[in-house]
Amino acid sequence: MSALTRPPATPTNATGRRIATAGAAVAIAGALTNALGYLVPVIGARQLSSADLSALATMLGLTAIASVPGLGLQIAIAVHRARNGAGQTARISLLTSLVCAGTLLVLAPVLVRLFDLPASYTLLAALATVPTVLAGRWLGELQGDQRFLRLAAGMAILAIGRYAGLIGGLVAGAGLTASLVAGAVGAWLIPPALAILGKTDQPHVADAIRAREVLTACSATLAMLVASYADLLLARHLLTPDASGAYSVGTVLTKGALWAPQVVTVLALPRLAQGNRRALRTALLLVGASGAILIAASAVAGGFAFGLAGGADYTHLGRYAPVFAATGALYALVFVLVNDRVATATRWASAPVWAACATLVVVAEFIAPHTLAGVMWSALGAAALAITLCAAGNAVDRMKR
């Protein structure tokens, strides 16, 4: 067909292309985030002793959990903005970041003793937490406005700021402590870069976001991330240093299955906030398909996956790869349902996930054997319980509406 006779693009086709372009950009940014996050333990496995590798994985887990309210802040701002338009976000964002870092400092004595970490490590974690959480302000504004190309760039800035210094220190052989210092310093480059990227002349037409909205979103995302990282922390607490180091390699597969379909949830959230139920069904279908593919791949090439994540010393654990991948795939579905519960202002949105997390702690500590397999199967059971409770809760809420 010639250019003269080709029919003009329809609005539907144009919208589809915009969504595809946005999805590709966010997917690339998410892949960069995941790649840098995976690269840290992969390099650590080759540069550090098993004990230091376990300490590194524990620090990554603690920092990730402490920074989760940044994701909650992003979700709350995006939902508020998609529903109501632009509102004031600076004050609540700063307060959220300071509360997160302060909580780490208050808990420092407990964390040092529980996980056998130097006291300076928790201080470095708190230092890196402030800018990481604060990033949620600008990312949420971009997401709520559906400026997905700029959001993708912001996600890349956040990923580079979080991990570049740490990776550089590990590659240079600086040791764990110096690498953590470099990572904390690098994180403070994130806020000014995002402030420039997210600058807009859009006037504030809506009321400022309320603390309750942020608290609901933070509680939900914190519950989900605590549940997905709890097995790693329990492994550090319950297993020998060598066994917990091996377990940390397995969790690389879990996080891969969890975050691989992240783009789906990012694109769907503004539509979920506007009450689009088709967006929820589509998101669950796509995320479920991604999880099924990753589980099948890990079943076929489990030894290769463990070797890629941790080196040749861990390939013998390949038989466990599908279980770690399945845990991550279930939590990816939980993440979609959690976002939907927050977007629709569901009361006690995080309750099902907190219940599953509490169950995991009880089972791993008092019922399951204190072995790699015992913690692993406990984590899979907790993920299955979380998605069951979330799905049941969402079904009940739909019936009430």
Automatic annotation (TrEMBL):
It is found in: Cell membrane. The lineage of its organism: Bacteria, Bacillati, Actinomycetota, Actinomycetes, Micromonosporales. GO terms for cellular component: plasma membrane. InterPro entries: Poly_Biosynth_Transport. It comes from the Bacteria. It is a multi-pass membrane protein. Its main location: membrane. This is Membrane protein involved in the export of O-antigen and teichoic acid. Keywords: Cell membrane, Membrane, Transmembrane, Transmembrane helix. It comes from Asanoa ishikariensis. The chain crosses the membrane at residues 21-43, 55-80, 92-115, 121-139, 151-172, 178-198, 214-235, 247-270, 282-308, 320-339, 351-368, 374-396.
